[in-house]
Amino acid sequence: MTRKTIHDVARAAGVAIKTVSRVLNDEPNVRPETRARVLAAAEMLQFQPSLSARSLAGRRSYLIGLVYENPSANYLVELQHGAMARCRQEKFRLFVHQCSGRGEELTRDVIGLIDQTHVDGLVVSPPLSESAHLIEALDQRGLPFVRIAPNDLKHVSPYVDMDDEGAAREMTEHLIECGHRRIGFIIGHPNHFASSLRLRGFRAALERHQIAFDPACVKQGYFVFESGLEAGRELLTLPDPPTAVFASNDDMAAGVLLAAHELAIPVPQRLSVAGFDDTYIARIVWPRLTTVHQPSYDLAFSATDLLLQSLKSGDAPKTARLPYKLIRRESTAPPAP
Amino acid sequence: MTRKTIHDVARAAGVAIKTVSRVLNDEPNVRPETRARVLAAAEMLQFQPSLSARSLAGRRSYLIGLVYENPSANYLVELQHGAMARCRQEKFRLFVHQCSGRGEELTRDVIGLIDQTHVDGLVVSPPLSESAHLIEALDQRGLPFVRIAPNDLKHVSPYVDMDDEGAAREMTEHLIECGHRRIGFIIGHPNHFASSLRLRGFRAALERHQIAFDPACVKQGYFVFESGLEAGRELLTLPDPPTAVFASNDDMAAGVLLAAHELAIPVPQRLSVAGFDDTYIARIVWPRLTTVHQPSYDLAFSATDLLLQSLKSGDAPKTARLPYKLIRRESTAPPAP
DNA sequence: CACGGCGATGACAGCGCTGTCAACGAAAGG
DNA sequence: CCTTTCGTTGACAGCGCTGTCATCGCCGTG
Q1: Which of A49, A213, A234, B158 could form a disulfide with B317 if both were Cys (CB 3.0 to 4.6 A apart)?
Q2: Which of B51, B56, B84 lies at the smallest CB-CB distance from A116?
Q3: With an 8 Å Cβ cutoff, are B283 and A225 in contact?
Q4: Do A3 and B115 touch (CB under 8 A)?
Q5: Which of the nucleotides in strand C have any atom less than 7 Å away from a protein CB atom?
Q6: A38 shares a domain with A67
Q7: The CATH number of the domain where A33 resides is what?
Q8: Rounded to whole angstroms, how far apart are CA atoms B304 and B298?
Q9: Is the domain of B42 the same as that of B67?
């Protein structure tokens, strides 16, 4: 019950190991008949090529790295599964790595991963995708990588993202169209570039509809439930409280919902609440959240796709922008007269 | 800016590569002075040994595999981080793998992972830890592995778990002590062994307090929100509805909460709701859930710990049972008079 | 003083593959 | 008819390490 090697397959098929290697790597110049014989032998022996040997001997490791820092559990799992799904299609494997540190320490961590595991490429998720130091080091290193939702689009390196600003604008306009004029906003974590994009979209919608921007209605949050709860309490106890609150993600929106419950403010009758991301949370709170569907799974799937394509073609990876979608549920409605 | 090898370090330190290898592997019989020189050279060159080369040449790959099937995002992330944290302490890396299939197909998937990646050991999370076919194959293969919350404790293989039955009993007793006599119960996914343990604990508590078990108050769920919602609706529209519902996990408890909202039943005034797991969800719904804290992170940390210890000592891994904790929040209270 | 034992170090094979290049026969061209 | 080309296959080196075994100098012992 020991591990089979390429020699076992070669012997069973009556060919040289190099021919087995050719078949496994889909190289040309193998007679179809020979190819079939090798494939049959490999199947019979349940042969699995050793990734270690492959990456040591060749230029490819069949490994893609996914690096992240500290995203929410739901977001992370979606990214992870999106990247895994695409890897599986190409018989690649995904190496998931949680990074630590910032700046130089972070870079060392990631370079260490690359050196140790020989990954062929990297999918860099936010907020790591915003670390200039890391991106520069990867560029210098010459390792192919694709960033998810980076902050610096002028940078040449490839990325996959969605239109955060447009989505936030559209959501704000939804609230305006409902009839809201005084709308609260909770900003996301200051380290995430998406936070400022969403704020920008919010302001753009106000401007377009000639509604004055009131700084009192804007609170700083940190993308976590507690920060939304706190910001919600502050907004709802304002002398002239908003009739709607748009939180930069669902976790914080759930916090606002709780704040409203505490203050006995019925949602959506006297307060509309909107979120962002469309995570699991949006569907399990009451009322269910109107939110922006962020295609996390697809973002990672697509990033991995671009990476694998570039590995195959040898060209630099391309770039993609994925569509978002406004999801209307029960947490938003016209304001009370 | 290319990858450094052991030869570079050996040259810089003025020793043979074998000596560098000895130092890196903490082998004895190296003069302290030599060791220091090698360490300094490795540090200077930012040398990272190639995992591929190590696993190809030696008996160890410095890789641990974590296999899972389809747990909730929060649970998965906790496991993943628990295992990663322990791996990092020993300079091991964690290979996370989502499995597909059942029975033989599942086994092939996992054996394929082992063969390809040369992992030194496996942490097997539920519900995979309940697959007899897989466990048998791993045993036969002779690869060290630790199961998390397995179903078959008579089996010789090592595991880490918590006392699901005791926890469910304790939670039920909490509801009984509040004064509830008619208590609904939502069973977890039938494929998860924990489901039957929790049901058993529920029944044990009723029995101990001489409360008759009414099958009408027990609904089958599937550990997901929607199933809790549905079961909640059924329970609460019963001719003689329960005054408390104990759901086998937090997701389903959140569903019950929503069902209560729909039916305008105030929680906890007219209905108490209890969950299980103490995931993130328990703290973001309203009212916040009374639940059992399941030490997922620690479970994985501990499983990885046992695995690494056994790798070091060469002995078979040990077994551990971790403590749970009842968390009382606002979703449970004495029933209305 | 000769010898054995031991701690410290190095030489070298080889893990399982891929890359390179050579070999060989058949088809194509003069 | 011989030469060239091309498709097919194999021999072999070597990726960066670890395991095995040899080597060497130094100590203690009879």
Answers
A1: B158
A2: B51
A3: yes
A4: yes
A5: 7-20
A6: no
A7: 1.10.260.40
A8: 10
A9: no
Our CA angle for A252, A257, A263, nearest 5°, is 125
**Dihedral sign of CA atoms A51, A56, A62, A65 in order:** positive
Are residues A288 and A172 both part of a single domain? yes
8 Å CB contact of B225 and A61: no
Nearest to A48 among B49, B52, B116 (CB): B116
Let me know how long chain B is.
337
CB pairs under 8 A between A and B: 117
Q: Which of A50, A116, A286 is the closest to B116 by Cβ?
A: A50
Per-residue pLDDT of chain A (337 residues; tens, 9 = 90+): 688 999 999 999 999 999 999 999 999 899 999 999 999 999 999 999 999 999 999 999 999 999 999 888 889 999 999 999 999 999 999 999 999 888 899 999 999 999 999 999 999 998 898 888 999 999 999 999 999 998 876 667 899 999 999 999 999 999 999 999 999 999 999 988 999 999 999 999 999 999 999 999 999 999 999 999 999 999 999 999 999 999 999 999 999 999 998 899 999 999 999 999 999 899 988 899 999 999 999 999 999 999 999 999 888 889 999 999 999 999 999 998 8
First-to-final CA distance of chain B: 76
Number of domains in chain A: 3
- In this structure, are B302 and B290 located in the same domain? no
Domain hosting residue A284, numbered range: 164-294
For residues A209 and A146, state if they share a domain: no
Please choose, from the candidates A257, A248, A180, A253, the residue with its C-alpha nearest in 3D space to the C-alpha of residue A214.
A180
Q: Which of A99, A229, A280, A331 to mutate to test the interface with B (most CBs of B within 10 A)?
A: A280
Are residue A124 and residue A199 in the same domain, yes or no? no
> Domain for residue A54, yes or no?
no
Shortest Cα–Cα distance, A94 to chain B (Å): 8
Task: Enumerate residues 6+ apart whose C-beta is below 8 A from A73.
Answer: B73, B74, B76, B77, B78, B280
